[in-house]
Amino acid sequence: MKIGIPDALCNKKDKVLYESFFEGLKVEVIYSHPTTKQTLNDGIKRAIDEECLASKIFLGHVEELAKRSKKEKIDYIFIPRICTFGNRKTVCVKFYALYDICKNLFDQKMITLNIDVDKKKGELQAFIMLGKALGKSSSESILSYIKAKQKQKSVMLQRLKEQNNQILKENMNILVVAHPYIYEDHYIGAPICNYLEKEGVHLVFADRNSSSFNKKDLKAYETISKSIYWKYNIDLLNGIVEYLEKVDGILYLSVFPCGTDCLVNELAMRKIKEVPSINLILDEQDGMAGVYTRLESFMDILKMKKKKEKSGVYEKV
Amino acid sequence: MKKYRISFPHLGNYYVPIYQLLEQLIDKETTEILIPKKMSKETIDLGSRVSPDFICVPFKYNMGNYIESLESGANVLIQAGGGCRYGYYFELQEQILKDLGYSFLFITLLDPEGIRVKNVFQKFKSINPKLTFTHFVQSFLVAIEMIYALDDFETYVRENLVYEKVKGSFIKLHEAFLESLKKVKNKRELRACKKEYFKKLKEIPLDPSKKNLKIGIVGELYTSMEPFASLFLERELADMNCYVKRYTTVSYLLFEKGRNQAKLLKLAKPYVTYALGADGLESVAHTLELIEQGYDGIIHIKPFGCMPEINAMPILQKISLEKNIPIMYLTFDSQTSEVGIKTRLEAFYDMLDMKKKRRSV
Fold first, then answer.
1. Each residue of B243-260: pLDDT tens digit?
2. What DSSP string describes A177-222?
3. Which of A8, A260, B96, B199 lies most in the core, judged by the most C-beta atoms within 10 Å?
């Protein structure tokens, strides 16, 4: 049994969880290659022109797997359907429909993981159903799920520790407020992160925060937004609250036209004025010069500010 | 000047039941109601100036309504909320308006999980301490009945507009109906008003021989229900001798949508396994239903960047191919030119017309 996983969107966010779940069930997993220009172009051909960049890229990844499926004998393409998490938490409606969209666009066998707590389909149950579709027993699936969950937790903790250890006063720390499927993406987000790291910046990722390990921090986001109900954006807001005092600047990185980020980032930018921030919106145009110019001048501002703070001299205006 | 001056955003003609409801709920000594200015180019200009760039267009229209109302003295604003991004509107809208320097009280009716009657009551009680729960519930029931009456009336008008013998007779009666609805005080008066106008409505002479195409409208709720946001799409279609059907009304969304979920999933089964979020599933299921009923063409409308409707679009495209039915996709944003839409509608009409004629030969 072989499963192809498009390495984009929600699969990027819970990569460790899915991977180790399938590993536990002894199901072979194949990933799509990192995003390239070709991936994006394939996605654009398949997608509705108004879809967000991230989902266009996702379709490109599915397309690639579909092309490879015959040669490499991929049995199913894995496309999760993530809906509600209970307690009025949900995600962007794009994730509700990913499975159905791909099923209509591609003539491939697909397999899904339907997490919909409001309809009494919790995460564990969803994984059991997924296991069943693959012909595994419930006990196998439960065991594999628990192990995968533990592994995900330890990986997340590891990442968090690494990140926190490097937040040093003498470093330039920039908080990246972006979903993992954006900043980790090889074609759109990673070049920006690499550029900043080359400039000597330590990047702090807002989604890697302690709220998943510490119940006390779980509601930290309420200081910025009380009524928010998108889980992925709550993660980011929790990160902002946690790191706000430790960083020199904030980089809001989103894609055009992201439905949730455009509301939540706007609100965050209006409420958080303590540190300088920059709002970058990525789209299909691939000229990066404009982006780098903006980042450069942002860096200049931060450097000047830091220098002044260090010497204790503030210019009087 | 009174202490509270309440205002709310426009949504089609639903300002009448909202006005009616508010009038029952407020204390007239301390509060007055400001119906927001009629939708205009100015409204959307004002709104889009202060809104995030790629937010869906209802946000921009709402902002325009709010700013116009605040400028004319409102200090209590109401937002409905609920569903997709709409439930999150109010927090950002409040922040933007406060950043612009306005001071006001913001009331939201729906929480994301639906209407909680008690919560809504508490919110109104905060501006009218004299309000009793029985009176509150009674007024709400009257408002709901009025919404149903309005929806029934408008559905009849929409579906028969194309047959009218004397041009303008429906519109005239519609306006008169709205005027008298505004004056309704209780259930008895509402029923009398409804009876009177429905009788008049049925008396309007029709000419069923008028040749026409049958077109169904599916899609997002705001652009469906606010004629200004869809640049008077329905009126335009009626002018072209098209019979128009649309499912989305407030009464449908509030009271029937929840019950219908299982039925819709069954209807859309070959194409859709799970709900697509907001009204996405409705668009697919209703399209299939319209095809079944022999409609000539379907128009799918949405604001720019509407996520649930974009989810439905690839599926609709597939349906369109497999069932050989033309579907036109219209996206509305803060543009205000009717001409572009008109040209596309005319082309769509011509195509449908040719298709029909060819089939009948």
1. 999 998 888 888 888 788
2. ES-HHHHT-TTTTHHHHHHHHHTTEEEEETTSSGGGT-GGGGGGGG
3. A8
